[in-house]
Amino acid sequence: MKLTNGERLITLMLCELYDKLDVVGEVDPDFLRTAIYTENEWSLAWKYPGIPFESGEEPPELREVLDILEMWSFIEASYTELSEEDKSSLLAETQPFTAAPRFPGFDGNNEAEYISISSILIDQLDRFQDFSGRDLNAHMPTLDMYRRMLAKFREAREGNWDPLGVDELESILAERVHPENRAD
């Protein structure tokens, strides 16, 4: 969904009226403001599926963010299922990373659209709640790394909904290191 400039202005003015008059309704003015200010108007149809919005284009980054969040959610959940021995083994094999795998977010300088979409999904649309309350700014470029990881993740997950094992996690997490920087 794309709003015109006039529709954005009217919506924002109505949000102010909602606040000024303490209107309590089904429409969340804070969400509307966030969707408009962050240019994530696609999220309106997700938040209010009962409203027959015209189907509009979703940003191409949305599908990629969803895939990345799903991958990290699965990685983190699978890691917690491992035995202590398997966790130690995995961390030993994924040097220089020595802590439990955790979604670091996106680069605030160069991947701001990805942070914005993630924030809407997590904080406004209540998806991927495991990441709620986290700083989504990784302070470093992440997309190339995530794309390498996603390729391995898709291979490991093809037709499989079981938690990832140590070997699968190791294969996916190894992609955090750029191929030119790997010791073979």
CATH fold descriptor of the largest domain: yfbu gene product, domain 2
- The percentage helix is 40-55%
- Radius of gyration of CA atoms, rounded to a whole number: 20 Å
CATH architecture of the largest domain: Orthogonal Bundle
Query: Distance between the terminal alpha carbons, to the nearest Å?
Result: 48 Å
Largest sheet: none
Layout of strands and helices, then pairs:
Layout: H1 5-20, H2 29-37, H3 43-47, H4 60-81, H5 84-93, H6 112-124, H7 143-157, H8 166-173
Helix pairs in contact: 1-2, 4-6, 5-8, 7-8
What's a quick, concise take on this entry?
The chain has 184 residues and is mostly helical. Helices cover 53% and strands 0% of the residues.
Give an account of the 3D structure:
With 184 residues, the protein is mainly alpha-helical. The protein has 8 helices and no strands. The chain has 2 domains: 43 residues, no CATH class; 122 residues, yfbu gene product, domain 2. The mean pLDDT is 93.
Keywords for this structure?
elongated; yfbu gene product, domain 2; mainly alpha
